[in-house]
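S2.1 Query sequence (MFS transporter)
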Amino acid sequence: MRRPGAALRALPRSVWLLGFISLMNDAASEMVYPLLPLFLAGMLGAGPRVLGLIEGLAEAASSLLKLASGIWSDRTRRAKPFVVGGYGIAGLARSLIAAATGWWFVLLCRLADRVGKGLRSSPRDALLARSVEPGQRGLAFGLHRAMDNAGAVLGPLVAAALLGGGLELRTVFWCAAIPALLVFFATLRLREPDAETSVQTPRFNWRLGEFPPAFRRYLAILGLFMLGNSSNLFLLMRARELGVPQAQIPLLWATMSAVAAVFLTPLSALSDRLGRRRLIIGGWIAYAAIYLLLGWSGLRAWGVWVAFVAYGLFIAATEGAEKALVADLVPRGQLGAAFGWYHLTLGVALLPASLFFGALWESFSVLAAFAFGAGCALFASFLLIVWLPRARD
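Output structure tokens follow.
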């Protein structure tokens, strides 16, 4: 068995390059989007309804494109054009928000950014899966997600430093073009894995029925879990209710992202040895416990910090393992489409999950909302045990 350091060094250059790309891209993104509500309200005179319209349309467009681009990349057996184009469009659109004089322009830029994400996400994940051996998938996806989460820590810190130095919001947005340019040039250096003549090119279609039954069951189980996994904005709202000062909320979120970044690689690599299901089930059970804790009215502010650190560990245990399990359950020639269905399942479930969570919170109680999320996680864990074959466990 290789030591962790040796296993990381053995990963192909493309895995490290994709990790660097995600780190820089997420840093650029997090320099802009946490400041968007302030920019829209303070400089463009737009309110929460406009923000909701922008985010809803943008995420809907992104979810559908993730499936289309995955199927298309399988058909062409090429992922790099989608990755280069997707990151390039997103970086340009994100930077142009600085030139906005009305909320409609922000909407167009945000839509273009999500179009870029929709184009790149599934082909990129397929490229990552094809670049490594099956026994390295957990480690590879864990490293990639770890570097992505590191960018989520770096971006807000850079933005805060620039604002603290006296720069205006528009100037900070223009500065986000610098890491976006680094991302674009890095994508040009990506290489496709060697083509496999034995891999059959799938027909271009949208039918889920052509995938293995185990993969379809996995998507159904993920959909159930996601039904109880509402927007993370509810976690921040609850933290504020439980006494965390407003000034500490960004630090609380950065701490959670940092914990995820540190532990994603070793925990995802553990799935290569112990099995994906074991790690995912453990993470989902921990998620249920965290949600029940946050729903408890007697939780103190220091307990919120503990819960958010634990939430970072939940992310670390599941994000890489979930994607690696997708690659385990489908043929290599269908990886792009499979990741498209994976991303679509997560995206489609987010809207009803958030609406239902908010309705339970307002109509019944905060405990009812968080208990529903915990219940979905526990039921999904049970189904993962009894309904999914033990692939690579």
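The chain is about 75% helix and 0% strand. The chain has a mean pLDDT of 84.
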